[in-house]
Amino acid sequence: MSRRSFVAWSCVLGAGAALTGCAPSVKGKAPAPAQYKDFTYDKVVWSGCHVNCGSRCPLQLYVKDGTVVRVGTDTEGTDDFAPGAISQMRSCVRGRTNRQRIYNQTRIEKPLRRVAGTKRGEGIYEEISWDEAIKEITDTMKEIKAEYGNDAFYIQYGTGQLGGSIARSWHPDRSAFARLMNLWGGYLRHYCDYSTGQINWELPLFNGAAYANNEVTDLVNSKNIVLFGNNPANTRMSGSAMQYLITQVRLQNPSARIIVVDPHLSDTAVGVANEWIPIRPCTDMALIAGMIYYLHKGGKLDEQFIRSKFIGFYSDTFIEDVKQAEPTSTAFMGLDKAGALTIKEDLSYEAYLMGTGGYAGSGEKTPEWAA
Length: 371
Fold this sequence. Notes:
The chain is α/β, with parallel strands linked by helices. The protein folds into four domains: 60 residues, N-terminal domain of TfIIb; 39 residues, no CATH class; 79 residues, Dimethylsulfoxide Reductase, domain 2 (3-Layer(aba) Sandwich); 82 residues, no CATH class. The chain has a three-stranded antiparallel sheet, with no helix packed on it. A three-stranded parallel sheet has the order 6-7-8. It has a two-stranded antiparallel ribbon with strand order 4-5. The chain is globular and about 75 Å long. The two termini are 21 Å apart.
């Protein structure tokens, strides 16, 4: 058994032993199993889960006397996992706990204003009416717009309700507040986002478009799946998300290799992976550099493809590539408005890998270096 396998199984067995050791000691007759308690309700209404995992699973809310008494999940139609088929979008535990969020004692149900004279962070608020809150916000927005213009209003990515199917609040520019601000003269939006910033630019180079990919059910035909710091068993675990898809891969295609690269032994690594690579935190890019170095030195890279699709990889064309790619629009961040682009040294990725040019003295990014 390898050291890596030993560590992985040690963690799993250790966790089991710890849970067993923490179990209370019961003497005598074992307690009877819990009995299912029936409940009554007046009606069932459809809702949706919005916990920012992207799935937006449908929920069935059982209502009694105007109060949600239970949260159910999707039970409609067939449950087939195949191209063109529709599988039930069964919500995970987070979605099924929406009732706890609805009636949580910490939920803010009325407008609160920080008491005058108190400091931010002290948590001292006073309750005000909705009319008073709306008027105060409106007056402040008018003052800001009059003095600074609409560019002073910034809507942070992830703010409010994104991805609502009924509200049609995706893309972020289509959320209710964004549409309101457009009617009021516009706002300062964010550049890119934390979910698809790289995908939007990289996938068109490979596939021709960012989202013109295969249907998700085709994942079961994959031979090799690598997850870098991705733990969908904890982050995307619903019936329509990544963990469900990878579980289907494990069930329908046992020969597929699923590799998890993660500093800690995640639930995904334990549950579905064939191999766990426990790198040190923040060394993802070092691992990637070592892999590319290996391919580059061994002549395994598609040089023609890289030269036609990417800018700044090879040393011999780096300066000319960058000059040709320099933006001409003044809207681009970092544009040299004087029109003069001066490149004094080789900062290509090849130079980085080999430790030459602007990276002289940094050494070659060999697999041994990455380790």
